[in-house]
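User: Can you predict the 3D structure for this chain?
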Amino acid sequence: MRQHPHATVPSAPHHAPRRRRSPFLRFLLICFLLVTVPIVALGATAVTATAVGGLITVEVDEHQPNGTSIWLPIPAFLVDLATLGAPLVIPPEAHREIEQVLGENQDNMREIIEGLVDGPDGVWVNARGSDGEVVTIEKRRGALTITVDSPDADVRVAMPARLVRRAAGAVGLI
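Assistant: Here is the predicted structure, written as structure tokens:
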């Protein structure tokens, strides 16, 4: 088939030449990825571990002018990590001392901790000292809360109750 002499023949598509990124920009991009990817991964892991394992909170309020007020959240998985290494770090003589102090009461300690962790919600201890200090230990919805109200300061520590069992087991209390 012949083409008409006045027909235009389409030319090949015209592509703009690709711009090459400079080596410095490539270097910056690689450095950015090498820094941000691990940080994002670590952050996602910490958030997930905290969501699953829970959070320990420590609150301290001093009753003085210019008194300190602290609220400290601690992911419970950090305590789990510390208890993994506890048998390696605690010297054997400390284990023997724990066994001597507990003696025959180690089974009682186990029962108390198991009862606290698995037992019903409620106030387990509510004691008032002669100095006006009030100590309360209670369990609500799987969380153990220890509160000390004194004339000088109020201290409150809350943690997942199951963490008590794991920590006590790691240091040889149960």
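The two ends are 96 Å apart (CA to CA). The chain is about 45% helix and 25% strand.
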